[in-house]
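Worked example 2:
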Amino acid sequence: MFAYGDTTLKVGKAGSNSQARYVSQHYNPASASSTLAASIVKRGGEIGVSDVDFQSVSEWLKDETDRINILLDTEVGIDALSLLETFLHCRLKPVFEGFSSQR
């Protein structure tokens, strides 16, 4: 999870084989369109951030957001991981989650 002050920005899951997603992809706007970095560059104004661009977003995320990791043993399985992610989406209502047509 990523938070900016009292605002939850993104909630996601990464399985045991998702090292790149867990470690670096959300900080790089070019790695995928669904990364937090890409969302901040495109829609940062929604949270009052307008001075972040393609080159500065990675450092902005590291400096200005809180990252909360909940680590589960792989033995709990993907169903438990998916349930936790869904619960956190419902409870925290992250700003940059899903397509705008789904909100």
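Residues 2-102 form one domain. The chain has one domain: 2-102.
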